[in-house]
């Protein structure tokens, strides 16, 4: 394991100079956008993101609404402006972008205190900041010295986006967003920056905006597989399976069959083609097992998902177990398995399963649900409180928390099915993965509100989704 | 094996990503700071800033072991306070109120540990508007925001400051509807008092208000009684207010966003015509016509201001109502000062020659210059543009 990691790191750094040392950023040029680089650098990463959809972004950024407000027409007339230089201009400017949130507090904060000892550890920094802020300061200085150096900007933004994704930390996306600020609203943007912009928008769940950028990138550089993979993923996420298939097909021409099938299998799984998906898995398994061992875990998750969809829970259990034997620390796998266990009402082992993965919201949620089901009131209330505090903190800043998590929190933890249904439906408007449809149905069952899910039922029917869990929920709704 | 298999080294990146799942608690939301402003006999401010953000800004982890200890924070206390205080400016009614740091503690929030900065001002007096200029961390993180909790003497409110606009204006009473109403009454008053156009136009209307129009001779002569003159002024001013309120509400709720550049030269032309009409009266109801026309234009202009404020729609009705009340009050305050003087000297030659004709001539000249300026986009008078 350690040897493989070492080897991977070495090879990884060979292909990713931006990660290797900060010094390479200065005056350095980012790798060319050739097909070769795409194949060796970007495609694997994007395939990885296609295959690992379980870790949710926590925050839907409302910065676009702030920007909208700031663009509101202000009085530009000279006389008006001058006459009102004192009071009115201040009013106009201030209210242009300040969201007033009636009734909100300033977040739950503990009482101020002074530690007794200098050695008390207050915060553990993410990997990116370990070793000091020298790297960060250097990048900032270089950007200040060369603000219009596109390759520098591109490299620096990619560095922070990568850090954000690797650490699941939205702060890094804010830094990348700042770096890309001059290009954020431009129509004419170089391809690499378009891609970075799309990644940030996707993170903020601005899927349509991200798709616009990716289509633009695809028209600029039709043989750039990165845009196609992202497009396939985003279209599939939105339930636009026809477009997703088109993007995947286009990808096959430039990146080969494995890449195509990795994109296609998740689409087949939710469009009534589970047999095709299984056949495709069988087709690529030898390749993956011999050449791309990393993807064995992804295969395990996908096989388990298919087994769940067709109602073969024993088989699903075996696939999850096999995945855990292969990669015992894989968080996505563990989260999927935890959901499976919760769904099976086998919650006793969920806490142990996730105990080594910190207190991410996705982890807190599942541990709290499991604790509640098993009657561990202390853990359940403690984790629920922490989770709701976090969601409230996001609302206070004018954003929406990730509605997939807030809906599950209302549904499974705080017994507020009506709110859960509202959140689940709002989530479903932007994200239509099978998990999202199931969530709406579950919330509707709990809220005894079958009328609100007509669209979801129609969507599943049109997509020809074969999912026994959804079918059971729909039956329950109809009997209500 | 698949015929057209890719030779991508997919495992490299995925192997890397999968192997380095972070094990420590990670931030779950973007960067925020929390500003709690209490208004007492002085300003008492609590400002919570995440240690994560301070690490990026001033550097806390001095031994670069990836952990921030209290000792490291304490040693940087002066730098933290200096950096923070320099990024925050508070104004009360356009006068800056210096704040001093009185100490620093810590508090745990749901996404990590925060430094709690305790700031105080010297004693303050009553004020109408507090302006908070916040320029912290935006140069690093575009998504940073400041959640402001304001506790005023009469009310409270919560606000969010973002990178697009770093200034926040808070009425003294917070966002309670009653104080919002009072605040906008005051804003309406100040708007009229600071609008030279409106004041000059009002003077042009008031000059003949103490006289009466003789239609047969097409001439103004001094009025006989106080009551008819006063009632005439009352209704003319009220019609101006009502007209501006109509277009103000219509602009905000209806056709906002249209270009209003024509308003400014039109106002100047109307001022000129009104003053000319004083000297060469021809239309019996001119004063009414002019007041309503001016009011309609004024309302459109005010509407543009309101559209630009970004006020939440729930607050618009109250603020618009307060604003219109303020406009009416301000107009009558001018009448209350000028009308008694004009009425008492209405029969004198001085009023006829110097005040009425002299004043009207001056207004014609002033209005003409403004009209030329606004139509051509040039500057002729430095006044009142530099008021």
From TrEMBL, chain A:
Protein origin, superkingdom: Bacteria
Name of the featured protein: Tetratricopeptide repeat protein
Organism per entry: Rubripirellula obstinata
UniProtKB/TrEMBL annotation, chain B:
Protein's name according to its UniProt entry: EF-hand domain-containing protein
Keyword Ribonucleoprotein among record annotations: no
Keywords: Membrane, Transmembrane, Transmembrane helix
InterPro entries linked: EF_Hand_1_Ca_BS, Put_HupE_UreJ
Membrane-spanning residues: 192-211, 232-250, 262-280, 287-308, 320-342, 354-372
Classification of source organism: Bacteria, Pseudomonadati, Planctomycetota, Planctomycetia, Pirellulales
Organism per entry: Rubripirellula obstinata
PROSITE patterns, per database record: EF_HAND_1
């Amino acid at each position: 394991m350690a040897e493989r990691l070492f080897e991977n790191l070495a090879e990884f750094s060979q292909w990713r100079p931006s990660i290797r040392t900060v010094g390479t950023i200065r005056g350095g040029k980012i790798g060319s956008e050739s097909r070769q680089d795409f194949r060796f650098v970007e495609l694997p990463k994007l395939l990885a993101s296609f295959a690992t959809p379980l870790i949710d972004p926590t925050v839907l950024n409302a910065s676009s609404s702030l920007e909208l407000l700031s663009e509101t027409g202000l009085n530009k007339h000279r006389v008006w402006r001058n006459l009102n230089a004192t009071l009115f201009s201040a009013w106009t400017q201030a209210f242009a972008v300040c969201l007033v949130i009636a009734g909100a507090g300033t977040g739950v904060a503990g009482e101020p205190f002074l530690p007794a000892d200098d050695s008390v550890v207050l915060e553990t920094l993410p990997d990116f900041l370990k070793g000091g802020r020298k790297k960060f300061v250097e990048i900032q200085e270089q950007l200040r010295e060369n603000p219009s150096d596109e390759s520098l900007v591109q490299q620096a933004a990619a560095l922070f986006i990568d850090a954000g994704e690797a650490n699941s930390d939205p702060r890094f996306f804010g830094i990348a967003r700042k770096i890309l600020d001059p290009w954020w609203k431009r129509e004419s943007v170089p391809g690499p920056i378009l891609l970075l912009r799309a990644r940030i928008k996707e993170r903020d769940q601005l899927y349509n905006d991200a798709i616009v950028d990716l289509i633009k990138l695809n028209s600029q550089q039709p043989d750039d597989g990165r845009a196609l993979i992202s497009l396939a993923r985003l279209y599939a996420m939105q339930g636009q399976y026809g477009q997703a298939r088109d993007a995947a097909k286009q990808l096959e021409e430039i990146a080969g069959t494995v890449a195509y099938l990795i994109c296609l299998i998740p689409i087949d799984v939710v469009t009534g083609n589970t047999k095709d998906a299984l056949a495709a898995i069988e087709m690529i398994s030898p390749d993956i097992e011999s050449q791309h061992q990393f993807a064995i875990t992804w295969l395990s998750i996908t096989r388990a998902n298919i087994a769940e969809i067709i109602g073969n829970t024993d088989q699903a259990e075996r696939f999850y177990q096999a995945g855990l034997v292969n990669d015992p620390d894989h968080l996505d796998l563990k989260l999927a398995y935890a959901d499976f266990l919760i769904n099976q009402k086998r919650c006793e082992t969920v806490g142990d399963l996730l105990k080594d993965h910190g207190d991410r919201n996705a982890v807190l949620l599942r541990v709290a649900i499991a604790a509640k089901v098993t009657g561990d009131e202390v853990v359940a209330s403690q984790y629920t409180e922490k989770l709701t505090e976090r969601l409230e903190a996001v609302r206070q800043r004018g954003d929406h928390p990730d509605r997939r998590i807030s809906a599950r929190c209302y549904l499974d933890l705080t017994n507020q099915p009506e709110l859960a249904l509202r959140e689940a439906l709002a989530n479903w408007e932007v994200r239509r993965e099978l998990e999202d449809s199931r969530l709406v149905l579950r919330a509707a069952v709990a809220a005894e509100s079958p009328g609100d899910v007509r669209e979801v039922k129609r969507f599943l029917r049109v997509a020809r989704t074969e999912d026994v869990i959804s079918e059971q929920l729909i039956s329950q709704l109809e009997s209500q | 094996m698949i015929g057209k298999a890719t030779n991508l080294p997919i495992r490299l990146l995925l192997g890397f990503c999968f192997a380095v799942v972070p094990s420590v608690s990670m931030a779950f939301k973007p960067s925020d700071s929390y500003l709690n402003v209490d208004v007492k006999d002085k300003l008492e401010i609590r400002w919570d800033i995440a240690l994560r953000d301070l690490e990026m800004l001033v550097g806390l982890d001095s031994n670069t072991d990836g952990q921030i200890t209290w000792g490291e924070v304490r040693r940087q206390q002066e730098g933290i306070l200096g950096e923070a205080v320099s990024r925050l400016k508070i104004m009360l009614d356009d006068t800056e109120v210096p704040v001093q740091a009185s100490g620093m503690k810590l508090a745990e929030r749901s996404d990590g540990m925060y430094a709690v900065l305790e700031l105080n001002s010297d004693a303050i007096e009553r004020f109408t508007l507090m302006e908070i200029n916040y320029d912290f961390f935006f140069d690093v993180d575009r998504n940073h925001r400041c959640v402001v909790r304001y506790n005023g003497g009469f009310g409270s409110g919560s606000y969010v400051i973002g990178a697009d606009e770093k200034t926040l204006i808070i009425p003294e009473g917070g966002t309670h509807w009653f104080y919002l109403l009072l605040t906008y009454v005051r804003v309406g008053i100040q708007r009229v008092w600071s609008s030279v156009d409106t004041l000059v136009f009002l003077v042009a209307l008031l000059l003949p208000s103490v006289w009466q129009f003789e239609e047969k001779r097409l001439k103004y002569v001094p009025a006989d009684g106080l009551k008819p003159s006063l009632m005439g002024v009352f209704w003319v001013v009220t019609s101006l207010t009502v007209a501006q309120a109509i277009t103000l509400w219509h602009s905000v709720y209806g056709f906002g966003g249209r270009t209003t550049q024509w308003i400014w030269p039109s106002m100047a032309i109307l001022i000129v015509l009104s003053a000319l009409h004083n000297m060469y009266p021809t239309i019996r109801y001119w004063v009414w016509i002019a007041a309503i026309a001016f009011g309609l234009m004024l309302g459109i202009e005010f509407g543009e201001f309101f559209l630009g404020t970004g006020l939440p729609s729930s607050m618009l009705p109250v603020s618009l109502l307060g604003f219109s009340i303020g406009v009416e009050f301000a107009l009558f305050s001018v009448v209350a000062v000028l009308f008694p003087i004009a009425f008492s000297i209405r029969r004198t030659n001085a009023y006829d020659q110097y005040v009425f004709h002299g004043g009207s001539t001056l207004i014609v000249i002033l209005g003409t210059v403004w009209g030329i300026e606004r139509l051509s986009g040039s500057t002729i008078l430095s006044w009142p543009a530099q008021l």
